[in-house]
Amino acid sequence: MLSQDKIKRINELANKKKTEGLTKTEEKEQKELRQEYLQSFRNSFKNQLHSMKVVDPEGTDVTPQKLKDEQEKNKKH
Hints:
Layout: H1 4-19, H2 24-50, H3 65-76
Helix pairs in contact: 1-2
């Protein structure tokens, strides 16, 4: 998870870009922070998927095989 300080900085840069614009250094920092945020988000989402189990109304496990394979692969790591 991204730290609160970094999220705050992302928002500061976004607001500054809207009001007065960013310097080249700030643009680079914003891009790097956004990439870090997206990577953190993707990792978190993947972790959620890897712990998911799909069950139909009758109680039968209907988790897609592709997801089961990924979950099994991650158990080995």
